[in-house]
Amino acid sequence: MKNLKKILLLSILTSLVAPVFAQKASWIWYPGDFDIYMSNAMQNRRTERGSFFPVFWKMDSHYVLVDFHKEFTLTEAEDVKLFVEGTYNVKIDGQAISGFPKTIKIPAGKHKLSLKVYSQAAVPAIFVQGKTVVSDETWLATFEDKEWIDQSGKVSDKSGTTFVSAGSWNLNNPTQLPSQFKLPTKPMAAVSRKKHDGGELLDFGKETFGFIKLHGLKGKGRVSLYYGESPEEALSTDKCETLDYVDIDLSQRKDSIMPLSKAFRYVNREFSGNVTVDSISMLYEYAPVTERGSFKSSDAELNKIYDVAKYTFHLNTREFFIDGIKRDRWVWSGDAYQSYLMNYYSFFDAPTVKKTLWAQRGKDPVTAHINTIMDYSFYWFLGIYDYYKFTGDQKFVQDIYPRMQSLMTYIDGRKNKNGLLEWMPGDWIFIDWADKLSKDGEVSFEQLLYARSLETMALCAKLANDEEGFAKYDKQAKELKSKIFELYWNPNKNALVHSRIDNKQTDNVTRYANMFGIFFDYFTPEQKLGVKKNVLLNDKVAKITTPYMRFYELEALCAMGEQSYVLKEMKSYWGGMLKLGATSFWEEYNPDKKGIEHLEMYGRPYGKSLCHAWGASPIYLLGKYYLGVRPVSAGYETYIIEPSLGGLEWMEGKVPTVNGDISVYMNKKEIKINSAVGLGTLKLKSNSKPVVKGATVKEVAKGVFEIAIEKGKDYLVKYSG
């Protein structure tokens, strides 16, 4: 069977290349399966000092037998090429075609084409290419035998199951099997080399990611490569986080590429025996995303922060949105959620958002929270509706909605007698990396995320045409929100307390639930002001030292119009990392630390990631709250532009959308706008009525004006700041 499969695949791949056709085909599979398969492969590449370091949550697998079909009505007979990953049979109108055909002829008229594919090692997938008969997400798929289902897709045996829409990821080359997918690479050289006792330290100039290549390797002995995001780490042969050992016995020069990609800026190479090498370079591995979003201003330091943030984010955009390139390289839901938001203001890479959401969720049955973390399950729900809001892709919501339901059913089943969530065996309540942060009892932060997730479920139920589900989730959300303020709001502290233990409020007030309550818009205007004064701007409340939660803290302040304050904070916090020589932003930054203390984390001298996705949040803050662009209805059909200089002299930039870019320029006297999408509303403050040609200016409050923005037009607005 194995040899037969190899022969089949080889014959398919070496067949004549298909001619140019009218419609574009892509590889398709059971939805979510390729994403799960690829995330398994990526996440299990992690090593720690040469040892395999596996994930510590349940990993699912793809379905090994999948049936694909679609009906076509052809005006004339059509030759159709078939490319398949796996062993397969083919049927036209239920009649099997003998053998393993690479090309079939479908007669004129209405016909049903079916392929059933088996593959244990890789995801069953097909690529069908004719003039009009092509494989795409309009095909239906099932992992069960459903030949009794009628043509409409309804189940005749009342089992309650149906076919689902196939999944794809724009893999459009029929001769490139999905299982062979790899990110592209390009050669790069070190910028400097420095000899030391026993070896040589190579500096590649900035944080990077890829495969080390040894040119002209010769001799007998061992090549030792020690990687470091800092020179101290690379030179610490017994404490660096990642390394490679290569034992060789070569009489002739040979090039050698390390089998696993690594994150580094510095590489310390040491040889034993009589090993020699002509030179060392790297193959830089990257995701081929398009730089669409942009930001530039009168502040050179802020511009540098933005550029480094975007580079940080690009490095952590790989097959999926991952946490950090040195250590984990795992698909953590909390990290990924922030990456989605940054992505919408930079690359607008919608397919990678979908892939990451599918991969995180895995398969039923649900036996634990996503990544085993309670809060991370909630971020997963929020990411789905955000994706719809930014892209308008309702089909994805409908496709993934059943997995949303089963995860929420699991969560609902873990409530305590008070209808709240608290730690249970198997759970990890994370919130943030912070000293002395209590996770005991019923934590208010978790209840807030739970309420928001129920609201998200209600919204997605409507999109999935589940009216009963909408009513259920909407009722749950409203009841929980009411309970949160009844049980956690402390009028004397003007804040939500951090937790309840033994049915009583604790005295502890932290920033987490309070800042989320602001941009969730859960507070009254008076409560917002109280929280801003007594929590967010109160130095007596424990400070946040991770970019992860600074993201949300600064968003809450921006949502309350504190852009001038946030600008100073960005320059102090992210600028502080730049002053210490950062070429990408870190997992954690505490300005009170000194020297190599900045490299420590998890009890290890070089445990901290110096290139972490959640460190790139200025991308999001500058796009949403300074350029001020955000969607109102799905896919930017309608949107708001509410720019704020926040102390800058001028700024300009682009915000990408699914159908084009929105360009904004602003100084203290003028605003220029051009948009390729939808119907926008420019909202601004001015001491006098703004002046603009070809548009109507409407005063909506004292000193607050709105101007309608139509796509394809240039607007020059003069105002008095």
Summarize the structure.
With 721 residues, the protein is of the alpha+beta class. The chain is 29% helix and 28% strand.
- What value does the Rg take, in angstroms? 28 Å
Low-confidence stretches: 1-22, 151-161
Shape: globular
Number of helices: 15
Largest beta sheet: strand ordering: 7-6-9-4-11-12
Q: What percentage of the residues does DSSP assign to strands (E)?
A: 25-35%
Q: What's the N-to-C terminus distance?
A: 75 Å
The class by helix and strand makeup works out as: alpha+beta
Largest sheet: 6 strands, antiparallel
Mean pLDDT: 94
Number of strands: 35
Explain what the structure shows.
Mean pLDDT is 94; it is low at 1-22 and 151-161. By secondary structure, this protein is of the alpha+beta class. The strands form nine sheets. A six-stranded antiparallel β-sheet has the order 7-6-9-4-11-12, with no helix packed on it. Strands 14, 15, 16, 17, 18 and 19 form a six-stranded antiparallel β-sheet that branches.
Produce the secondary structure layout.
Blueprint: H1 2-13, E1 28-29, H2 33-43, E2 47-48, E3 51-52, E4 65-74, E5 78-85, E6 87-92, E7 95-97, E8 103-106, E9 109-118, E10 125-129, E11 140-142, E12 164-165, E13 167-168, E14 185-189, E15 192-196, E16 199-228, H3 231-235, E17 243-257, E18 262-271, E19 279-285, E20 294-297, H4 300-315, H5 333-344, H6 350-361, H7 374-391, H8 394-412, E21 442-443, H9 444-463, H10 467-488, E22 489-490, E23 495-496, E24 499-501, E25 504-505, H11 511-519, H12 525-536, H13 547-559, H14 563-579, H15 618-626, E26 629-631, E27 638-641, E28 650-657, E29 660-667, E30 670-675, E31 679-685, E32 691-692, E33 697-701, E34 704-710, E35 714-718
Parallel strand pairs: 27-31
Antiparallel strand pairs: 1-13, 2-3, 4-9, 4-11, 5-8, 5-10, 6-7, 6-9, 11-12, 14-19, 15-16, 16-17, 16-18, 16-19, 20-28, 21-24, 22-23, 24-25, 26-27, 28-29, 29-30, 30-35, 31-34, 32-35, 33-34
